[in-house]
Every structure is written in C-alpha cells, then in structure tokens.
Amino acid sequence: MSALSLFDRIADGLADTGYFSIPNFVSRDEALAIRDIAIRHKEEGEFRRAGIGKQIEYQLEKDIRGDEILWIDNEDTAPSIKSYLQRMEELQNFLNYTCFLGLKEYEIHFAVYPKGTRYARHSDRFKNNPHRVISFVLYLNPDWEEEDGGQLAIYLEGKDPVFILPEAGKLVCFRSEIEHEVLECNRARYSLTGWLLDQPVGLTFL
Ligand code: OGA
Ligand code: MN
C-alpha cells in the first residue's frame, strides 16, 4: 500500500470514528530493534516513573498510572527511531494539509508498563496539557496474546469500547481528547508513545 493511501485512511479514521489502528506500520524486525534500544535504556536506569499530579500519594498514583517513561530527543536518536519519526512528520504534514489541524510539532517518549501495572481511564488533552491534538502509540511487543492483558481500551461516545492488543509493529492513532485506558499488563509492555501538538514543544510548558 502506498504511503499516501495509508495516510488517507488514517485521516479518514481520525475524522470519522476518532481513531485508527494499523498492524505492521513498521516491520516486526524494526519494532524489535526499537524495543532493544528501550530495554538497554531501561537496564541503564534511565526510565522514570510517569507522573499524574503531585497531590496524590505514591501508591494511589501507581494504581492509576504505573508506567515508566524516557523522553526522546527528536534530533539525537537511533536510526531506527529516526526513520519512524520521519514518517510521523510526514503524517503530521499530511494531516495539516488535509484536515487543517495546525499541527506544529510532536513529542515522544518510550514507555514500559512493568508486569501488574496499568493506566486508568483518562484523556490526553486536558487543562494542564491542552496542546495535544493527536496521540499515537507504536507497540513493540512480540508474540503478545490476549492473556498478556495490556489492551488499549478506547471509549467512543455511544459505542462499545474498542480493545487493541499492543502487538509489535502496530500503530494506533486517536484524537487526544478521547478517553482511553491501558488494562493491567501481565508481562512488561513496551511502546513509543507520542503526541502531535498545536504548539511548539518549548511553549507547551508555559
Ligand atoms: C498514554 C497512553 C496508551 C497505550 O501514555 O497516555 O494512554 O496504549 N498510552 O500505551
Ligand atoms: Mn493516554
């Protein structure tokens, strides 16, 4: 399939239902190469617990959101990640051209959900973070089965939830305001998670 028709289908999915899921957006080998990089950073102790707010105590926070993350420097990263970032830049340009979304930049981090962790139902676009327009997640987990849990549940208004297995090479994109959840994982779950923003990254923390 040409890149254009794939991007067309992503744009249609985002406009119609609000999400789109693409198995094998990158090859299994590419996904495993990126996963190896993530595991190396994890073993070197570079990941940090992801925060949801300072006011909540540690254990409660961990029950709500148990992932650990490592932000990626878009300008200085491994070739396999760079080529994925280039495709996301092309997608960003395409969405601006076809859907007038006014996307300016993207931010992206590795995430690992250790066994037994989850991320409770939430939206990625909220008062403290209003510039996230499209969320996108590339999954990096070979041979992931139903019983491994860790599905992404997407809650579309008036519809049954959609459950997506975090299988190596799959990309899922959704409008950031849509509520979603990561179900409890029964083994470590790796991904590259990012957002297309309507403001340059440096300005989003103002
Ligand atoms: C997030 C998130 C979904 C996923 O990091 O905000 O919702 O499937 N991730 O990893
Ligand atoms: Mn989210």
From TrEMBL:
<keyword id="KW-0560">Oxidoreductase</keyword>
<dbReference type="Pfam" id="PF13640">
    <property type="entry name" value="2OG-FeII_Oxy_3"/>
</dbReference>
<dbReference type="InterPro" id="IPR044862">
    <property type="entry name" value="Pro_4_hyd_alph_FE2OG_OXY"/>
</dbReference>
<dbReference type="GO" id="GO:0031418">
    <property type="term" value="F:L-ascorbic acid binding"/>
</dbReference>
<keyword id="KW-0847">Vitamin C</keyword>
<feature type="domain" description="Fe2OG dioxygenase">
    <location>
        <begin position="104"/>
        <end position="198"/>
    </location>
</feature>
<dbReference type="GO" id="GO:0031543">
    <property type="term" value="F:peptidyl-proline dioxygenase activity"/>
</dbReference>
<keyword id="KW-0408">Iron</keyword>
<keyword id="KW-0479">Metal-binding</keyword>
<dbReference type="InterPro" id="IPR006620">
    <property type="entry name" value="Pro_4_hyd_alph"/>
</dbReference>
<dbReference type="InterPro" id="IPR005123">
    <property type="entry name" value="Oxoglu/Fe-dep_dioxygenase_dom"/>
</dbReference>
<dbReference type="GO" id="GO:0071456">
    <property type="term" value="P:cellular response to hypoxia"/>
</dbReference>
<protein>
    <submittedName>
        <fullName>2OG-Fe(II) oxygenase</fullName>
    </submittedName>
</protein>
<dbReference type="InterPro" id="IPR051559">
    <property type="entry name" value="HIF_prolyl_hydroxylases"/>
</dbReference>
<keyword id="KW-0223">Dioxygenase</keyword>
<dbReference type="GO" id="GO:0008198">
    <property type="term" value="F:ferrous iron binding"/>
</dbReference>
